[in-house]
Amino acid sequence: MKTRRLLVIPARSGSKRIKNKNFKIFKGNPIISYSILTALKSKIFDKIVVSIDDKKYFKYLNRFNVDIFFRSKKLSNDNATIEQVLRDVLFKYDEFGKTFNEIWSLTPCSPLIKKEDLIKGSILIKNNNKKIILPVCEYPAPLEWGFKLKKNKRLIPIKKNAYKIRSQDLSKSYYDTGNFVAIPAYHFKKKYIEFDKHYLGLEIPKNRSIDIDDLEDWKLAEILYK
Fold first, then answer.
1. Is residue 224's pLDDT more than 80?
2. Is residue 173 within 8 Å of 138, Cβ to Cβ?
3. What's residue 76's pLDDT?
4. Distance between CA atoms of residues 223 and 219, nearest Å
5. How far is the C-alpha of 91 from the C-alpha of 128, rounded, in Å?
6. Is 9 strand, coil or helix?
């Protein structure tokens, strides 16, 4: 049976650290366009939908071959989770009689992600159809070498005497890059998804692993994109 994939690009307008971040001009185009075009070029999605809360973006998004859904105020505040947004979109498609095997989310601010990353993710989830795929990147230094910084600037080692341990004697650690997630649809039949029990990691190179949250991220992404 053919796998049917739904991709949701959540693009609310209420970003705090960068105003209208999801539609801010990045290298000549609204940054969301890079995520949309990468998803289209991958040719792995049966439906791509952009979830927005402001109708002023409808005209711009309408130039792409994507569906556009308006989300409620409840799903547009800072407390709304990606899982809630995905469930909302999935429910609307259910009403149309359209079903999917996989539900994906790709952030609007992922201009460095390539179609190959999405394709590799689709292969990984196909071979592990009960797992949730996350793009991950290796931390630049062992977590055991980390510190907590107190208000008085005092450094508290996370692991006592960790400086005595060689890096090659410590396990590598990885973080979620935040760019996308791929979830088998059957997980949404449950009231809550137990994400931590089902993760599989897809390693992404450091130079493509930025999910833009602030202006420093933005500037770095522009340099890397160039």
1. yes
2. yes
3. 83
4. 6
5. 25
6. strand
Pairing between β-strand 67-70 and β-strand 155-157 as defined by DSSP bridges: unpaired
Q: Does 80 or 69 have the greater pLDDT score? A: 69
Residues 134 and 59 sit within 8 Å (Cβ to Cβ): no
Mean pLDDT over 114-133 rounds to: 95
Mean pLDDT to the nearest integer, 14-21: 82
- With tokens 């690009």, the residue in question is 9
Residue 74's pLDDT band, with cuts at 50, 70 and 90, is confident
CA distances for 101 relative to 45, 151, 180, 192, angstroms = 11, 48, 17, 18
Give the end-to-end CA distance of the chain in Å, rounded to a whole number: 41
Q: What is the DSSP string of 63-110?
A: TSS-EEEEPPSGGGSTT--HHHHHHHHHHHHHHTT---SEEEEE-SS-
CA distance 36 to 50: 9
Q: Please report the pLDDT score of residue 1 as a whole number.
A: 61
| Nearest to 67, CA basis, from 49, 80, 53 | 49
Q: Per the structure block, which two tokens stand in for 137? A: 């990147």
